Amino acid sequence: MKFKLLGQFEIVVTEDRSFFLSRSKVSQLIGLLLVQNGETVSVDTLIEELWGENAPRSALTTLQTYIYHARKIFAGMPGGEHVLVTRPAGYVIQVPDDAIDVAVFERLVQRARRLLDGDRPEEAMGCLDEARALWRGPVLVGMMIGSVLEAHLTYINELRFAATHLHIEASQRLGRHQEIIPQLRLLVAENPLNESLHAQLIKALDKCGRRAEALQAYRNLWRILDAELGVEPAPELQLLQHELLSRGSVVHGRS
């Protein structure tokens, strides 16, 4: 069995048999147990996820009904009867980590980080490309999401953002500055207040000999920060702009 959460919620039973879970509280329950694979999730936590502050008096009985239906989903799968286990304090799903795309993604990103730390950018790039290929859309797109699952999804999305940064860093170490400019422009547009991304874009443009565009990228950041927050770019970015301007002045003086 394989569980795909990075996109529409899908369970792959065999190579030629899979199905998508519909939007329901049973799917919501399974999703939460999967992102905490191997960990017992308490009854109180499950109730909080499913109903928040509006839990009905029948919450415990209804939860047990959802557990029953979740077990029915697994019952027709090879070894499925051992997937969802009752514990004294709650419930746990136990499957190999490599059966869940989120766990595989996390492992690949961690490995890529270690490879970069070991100055092996080419291998790190391979891991990151493999990790990014696992994404088929927003995490558990279309599913019902409560506060507990939302916290896990925030972590997963932050991890995806970290993977993007690592990919950019690996590309820069390999001298592939031109290749990452379109990606950086898109990321800057999606995250206009992230100064780190703006800095990466400015540096990449400069490395490609596009100094005027690099300076324009700095001016765009300055306008955004001034309009949104009333602040100037961080000192490191101001120094980067100064270096770009100074280099241009030196060249002009020699001509």
TrEMBL record:
Segments forming domain OmpR/PhoB-type: 1-95
One Pfam match: Trans_reg_C
InterPro entries named among the record's database cross-references: AfsR-DnrI-RedD_regulator, BTAD, OmpR/PhoB-type_DNA-bd, Sig_transdc_resp-reg_C-effctor, TPR-like_helical_dom_sf, WH-like_DNA-bd_sf
GO molecular function, one term: DNA binding
One GO process term, biological-process aspect: regulation of DNA-templated transcription
Position of the signal peptide: none
Alphabetic keyword roster: DNA-binding, Transcription, Transcription regulation, Two-component regulatory system
Gene3D superfamilies (alphabetical): Tetratricopeptide repeat domain, Winged helix-like DNA-binding domain superfamily/Winged helix DNA-binding domain
Location of the DNA-binding region in this protein: 1-95
Domain of life: Bacteria
Family statement: Belongs to the AfsR/DnrI/RedD regulatory family.
Name this protein carries in UniProt: DNA-binding SARP family transcriptional activator
Organism this protein belongs to: Streptomyces netropsis
